[in-house]
C-alpha cells in the first residue's frame, strides 16, 4: 500500500524527544532527514516480509546448532532456497562465516516481527528476543512454512508508522555509536550492534518513492554507513 509519507520534520521532532528521554546524545542539526516532503512510502509485501523472517529464523537456528541437513531441507520444502543471499547460503549450507555476526540477526528478526504486528513494541533500550522463538516456525518440531503462516496470521503495519520507527532507529544508530565513543552509559541492555540490526531490517522493509530515492536494495545491499 503506497501512501503519502508523514511530515519528516514532525517525525524528527518526535525522534529527538525520544532520544532526549533516553538521555542519549542528539545528532547535529545538519543530520539528514530520511525522506522529503511529498515522498510516498510503502512496506515490502507480506510475502517478502514473511520469507525474509523465515530465512533469518533458520539462519539463527543454524548459528545455535541446527544441522546443515535439517536447515537446507526446511528451506527447500518452503521454496525459500533461492531467496538466500550468498553469505546466508555459505553459512547455512557450509557453515562458513562469522557465527556471532549471524546470531546478531535476532534483533533484525524482532524488527520484522514488529513490522508484521507479531510484536506490539520494539523497545530501543531492551532486547527484542523474549518469546521471539515461539513467534516463528518451530523448526525442531518440523513445523512447515505454510503451517506457520497460517498460525501467525501476520499483517503488515501501516507504512507511515514503520517510516517513523525507521527515522528513530536511523538517529538511534548515530546516538548509540556516539555514546559508546564517549564511553557514556547506555539506556538499557542493548548496544549499537543491536540497534544497527534493527535499522538494517527497517531500511530494507520500508520503501520510499520520490525523486531522490533509488530502487529498494537487496538484503545485503542495505547501506548503514550514514
Mean pLDDT across all amino acids: 96
Low-confidence stretches: none
Counting structural domains, the number is 2
Radius of gyration: 18 Å
Secondary-structure map:
Elements: E1 3-4, H1 8-21, E2 40-43, H2 46-63, H3 68-77, H4 86-94, H5 99-103, H6 105-115, H7 132-135, H8 145-152, H9 159-181, H10 192-205, E3 206-209
Antiparallel strand pairs: 1-2, 2-3
Q: Could you please describe the fold and organization of this structure?
A:
It is a single chain. The chain has 226 residues and is mainly alpha-helical. The chain folds into two domains: 3-44 and 158-220, no CATH class; 46-152, no CATH class. It has ten helices and three strands. The longest helix is centred in the C-terminal third of the chain and has 23 residues, at 159-181. It starts with a strand and ends in a 17-residue tail after the last strand. The mean pLDDT is 96.
Amino acid at each position: 500500500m503506497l501512501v503519502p509519507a508523514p511530515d519528516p520534520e514532525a517525525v524528527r521532532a518526535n525522534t529527538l524527544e525520544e532520544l532526549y528521554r533516553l538521555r542519549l546524545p542528539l545528532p547535529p542539526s545538519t543530520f539528514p532527514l530520511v525522506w522529503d516532503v511529498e515522498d510516498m512510502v510503502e512496506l515490502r509485501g507480506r510475502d517478502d516480509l514473511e520469507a525474509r523472517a523465515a530465512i533469518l529464523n533458520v539462519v539463527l537456528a543454524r548459528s545455535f546448532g541446527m544441522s546443515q541437513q535439517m536447515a537446507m531441507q526446511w528451506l527447500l520444502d518452503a521454496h525459500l532456497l533461492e531467496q538466500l543471499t550468498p553469505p546466508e547460503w555459505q553459512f547455512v549450507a557450509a557453515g562458513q562465516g562469522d557465527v556471532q555476526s549471524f546470531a546478531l540477526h535476532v534483533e533484525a528478526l524482532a524488527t520484522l516481527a514488529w513490522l508484521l504486528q507479531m510484536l506490539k513494541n520494539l523497545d530501543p533500550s531492551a532486547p527484542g528476543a523474549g518469546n521471539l522463538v515461539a513467534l516463528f516456525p518451530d523448526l525442531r518440531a518440523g513445523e512447515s512454512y505454510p503451517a506457520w503462516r497460517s498460525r501467525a496470521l501476520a499483517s503488515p503495519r501501516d507504512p507511515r508508522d514503520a517510516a517513523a520507527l525507521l527515522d528513530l532507529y536511523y538517529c538511534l544508530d548515530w546516538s548509540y555509536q556516539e555514546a559508546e565513543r564517549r564511553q557514556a552509559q547506555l539506556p538499557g541492555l542493548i548496544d549499537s550492534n543491536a540497534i544497527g540490526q534493527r535499522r538494517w531490517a527497517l531500511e530494507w522493509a520500508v520503501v520510499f518513492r520520490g525523486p531522490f530515492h533509488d530502487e529498494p536494495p537487496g538484503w545485503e545491499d542495505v547501506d548503514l554507513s550514514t
